[in-house]
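Model: You mentioned two targets. I'll fold them one after the other.
Researcher: Yes, keep them separate.
Model: Target one:
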Amino acid sequence: MSLQCGIVGLPNVGKSTLFNCLSNAKAQAANFPFCTIEPNIGVITVPDERMIKLTEIAKPQSIVPATVEIVDIAGLVKGASKGEGLGNQFLGNIRSTNAILHVLRCFENDNIIHVDGSVNPIRDKEIIDTELQLKDLESVEARLMKVQKQAKAGDKEAAKIADTCEKYKAHLLKGLNIRTIEDVTDEQKELTEDLNLLTNKPVLYVCNVDEKSLPDGKNNAWVSQIREMAAAENSDVLVISAAAEAEIAELEDPEERSMFLSDLGLEESGVAKLIKAAYKMLNYITYFTVGEKEVRAWTITRGMKAPQAAGVIHSDFEKGFIRAEVIKYDDYVTYRAEAAIKEAGKMGVEGKEYIVKDGDCMHFRFNV
């Protein structure tokens, strides 16, 4: 299951610096707008301490962790929805992602130009929201014109879609994001899912602060304002210092890195927190397959049943699913061998209705 997050923000808020910390790819971090013209894509490993433990126990020939694709999308500017800057291209790149990491500049630095002349993350957030809302409004109005004709001809499904689009349009015209709409049913959402609305994507607000605002940004007035704003739309906020993360990324010695994090009041890097937060935002969990040949992490959606989870490995596993042998992660670490786990009665045999839990170690039996 692919997970692609797009990093967005106005120019010079720290997007490319953060991307460089997330990925081995090196986006150009330059002090002027539009230095990132093509989206930079990096595939990064999802940090998971459980993989380390399982690897120590199984001593496999190979290790395959879960991964996330991060797309560094060039800075949006006011008027992007009408093609200003490189607007249409940027908005198209956002449309292809599963979630948005919205970087907001929450620090002063006279040496780094702000595209609007002053630091104001709430204004910056509203600028990007407006551009995404205007683009969504275009999509909704185009669909509305199409389905209204069909609805007049007696098409009941088209009538439902038209009603949904009318609600979306009214919501957007109020300057609100579709992810905050409440008077639309699950059926209506499903009927209009193919609109792939930009403001319906889950968003994580990433407050880029200076080092003195770490670890939690409580002494940063802008962060407090953003938290209040994000709470109103049920979104999460992460406080990070892209400049500090760049320094952390340069440290290869684990002890030096640990000391540097400790000096900043951090238990783990902001990059690790960011990827975990992205996973949580998309309602993803991880299960493992463990053996002498390979320890591998598999990404699935929370609530997925065993056959569908098996299908992530191969469609034949889902088609011919018989049963799943399940060991809880804690039991695997405690007993350290499948023979001991079985002897202790800690291996579960589960059928088609079993809902996979985060951290399950699984072996599937199937017949095709």
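Model: Target two:
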Amino acid sequence: MLITSRETRRWVIPKGNHIKGLAPHESAADEAYEEAGVRGIACPSPLGTFTYLKRRRTGRTRELEVTVFPIAFVEQVEDWPERHERDTRWFDLPAAVNAVEEPALKALIAAFREPVIPARLAQRVLPAFRTQAKKRIPMVAWFQALMPTQGRFFDQFEAHAATLVAGADALAKLLHNQGSIADNIAEIVAREQQADDITRDVLQDVRRVFVTPFDRSAITSLIGVMDDAIDQMNGTAKSIELYEVTSFEPQMRDMSGIVVEAARITAEAIPLLRSLGNNAGRLHDLTARLIRIEGDADDIHDAGLKALFKAHGATAPMDFIVGREIYSHLEKIVDRFEDVANEIQGLVIDHA
């Protein structure tokens, strides 16, 4: 989503000054709503920075640095404060890169990738995807020709990644009180069950297939940590349902934003395993970001737990115990995504 600036009418991303009392990513989300009508789940970990010259009506310019945060899009409302002051437009990635002027912003946008996992993969239509994957990624044709009826490991990994994205989105909506709590929990449970089915298929194929794209232990380890991530999402949802929690601490919401970003990164990284040598550089960048945002999640977890204890430790100990359990699940979700990063890095080192 790009918008036009007020003065020069050039294409830019929504941005503004840090709002007092809000965290930086919360300010970014507020600006996305004010300037573009976009609501979504903001991740506290920035993507990077860029500088630009802010041009004033007097003709003077001032160099400013902008910190950019990813926001998982939920909706664009029908009306918003600056609707009649700017134009808004959705671009595909190459067009967005060409539309903006700042070189560093061009690089940040170019670093994103179009989603490669069709929604139907979450419904486990693996044979259909297998045919399309062969058309889209010719280099895998040799593997499918070798084993036309055996093993679907790449497809299965990508299908599992789709469940991670869907489960993370539902978890974030749950913690941001967007939609019905029961519906969001049901969505997480359904995705966890789909993930279990996919994991079971992978383990069965590992036992029966003679030739695998990489070592059997690597396959089982990677699908195992991916499954652990959605299991922890399910554990979070179950705790919320069990204890009938209806309101959530700001740090819990922030951690859910990191979970959404981690799932997005994973969904981009997994298809790149089809060609480890060609994609080693990009996989390094993606796994490095996964590890970095896990550190951010640890800081948010610690701050949230401390605030929770101060608020409820002495006066409402059960509220503290319940909140601590939810924090524990959220921390473990992000930890499992770090495990995914480590497994992928190991594959790159071994095979690239």
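Researcher: Noted. Anything on target two?
Model: Residues 276-312 form the longest helix (37 residues).
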